[in-house]
Design a protein that fits this description.
Layout (H helix, E strand, L loop, with lengths): L1 H31 L6 H19 L4 H25 L8 H23 L4 E2 L4 H4 L1 E4 L2 E4 H23 L1 H11 L1 H6 L4 H27 L1 E2 L3 H16 L4 H21 L4 H15 L10
Helix pairs in contact: 1-6, 1-9, 1-10, 1-11, 2-3, 2-4, 2-9, 2-10, 3-9, 6-7, 6-9, 7-9, 10-11, 11-12
């Protein structure tokens, strides 16, 4: 029983990490129709700058952790907003060009990170509590999973409240439904879409800092490795659906944990098979709109 509890809660923690990365992808595609393959670069840069911040302040303190999270969120938001403003804004409704530009940006930034921080992983330290465990029904759960779950819930609630109860959220949703009408009313929809990219980048930046604590290191390939599972989660949940991304993140991560433990490390294979089943039975995803 303790093993099941351990796998379940650690799966929830991993799912929370997947959601932080996938939420930005899902939000950007759902509201703007843009598949951003450079999303992992937002995460990686935020993780590196968060690590530099924590190292400067003393990596084993809570102050340094929260400062790193703040730096990560701001870095991700600025990088994402700059990407939208300089590159994506001219390519709306041109999906092939979007893919080519964002893939090229992803490859270029990995090479840039290699040149700045080197190709070897940079190992990190955090508050002592994160390295400890808490016993639940006989299972010793790493404390960093609880932090991941809490932050993911806060991000989900924050994004939903922003879209439903703020003026920018109203403009964004209206612009998605009828962009020309909103523009005719004198509202700058382009600015709202830049805000969407910034929100997605901020979520990825927070995820990058927490991912470095989850894995214990940061490297130029960190964002790319997580981006693969983020895309799987986004497709399974339904492109553009935040609730779908949240549910799919949990399902994928828990399945991965149980398969790795009980089926000799076949977690990634099980996830790919799940993706194939969903695409065959419901191509739009669990919560996606049928077209």
């Amino acid at each position: 029983m303790s093993t099941v509890i351990l796998l379940l809660i650690t799966g929830l923690g991993l799912g929370a990490l997947y959601f932080l990365v996938a939420s930005g992808l899902s939000l950007i595609y759902g509201l703007m129709g843009v598949l951003n393959f450079a999303h992992g670069s937002f995460l990686t840069l935020a993780a590196f700058l968060g690590w530099e911040t924590a190292r400067a302040l003393g990596a084993d303190s809570w102050v340094s952790l929260f400062a790193a999270l703040g730096v990560g969120a701001v870095t991700g938001a600025l990088f994402a907003a700059g990407t939208e403003f300089l590159l994506i804004r001219r390519l709306y409704e041109r999906h092939i060009e979007q893919v080519l530009v964002t893939v090229g940006l992803a490859l270029a930034t990995v090479a840039l990170f290699d040149g700045i921080w080197g190709t070897d992983p940079q190992f990190i330290r955090g508050p002592q509590w994160l390295a400890e465990t808490t016993e639940i029904l006989g299972a010793r759960i790493p404390n960093n999973r609880f932090l991941l779950i809490a932050v993911a819930v806060l991000v989900l609630v924050g994004i939903v409240l922003f879209l439903r109860f703020t003026r920018f959220g109203l403009v964004i949703r209206a612009g998605v439904e009828n962009r020309s009408m909103v523009t005719a009313l004198g509202i700058d929809v382009r600015r709202a879409f830049t805000v969407v990219f910034a929100i997605g980048g901020a979520a990825a930046g927070i995820g990058g800092v927490l991912a470095s604590h989850y894995f214990g290191y940061v490297s130029p390939q960190l964002g790319g490795s997580l981006l693969i599972f983020a895309f799987i989660v986004t497709v399974i949940g339904g492109l553009g659906s935040l609730p779908g991304a949240a549910l799919a993140s949990v399902v994928v991560a828990v399945l991965q944990q149980f398969a790795n433990f009980y089926l000799a490390g076949t977690g990634d294979l099980m996830v790919v098979l799940l993706l194939a089943v969903v695409l065959l039975l419901r191509p739009s995803g669990l919560f996606g709109r049928r077209t």
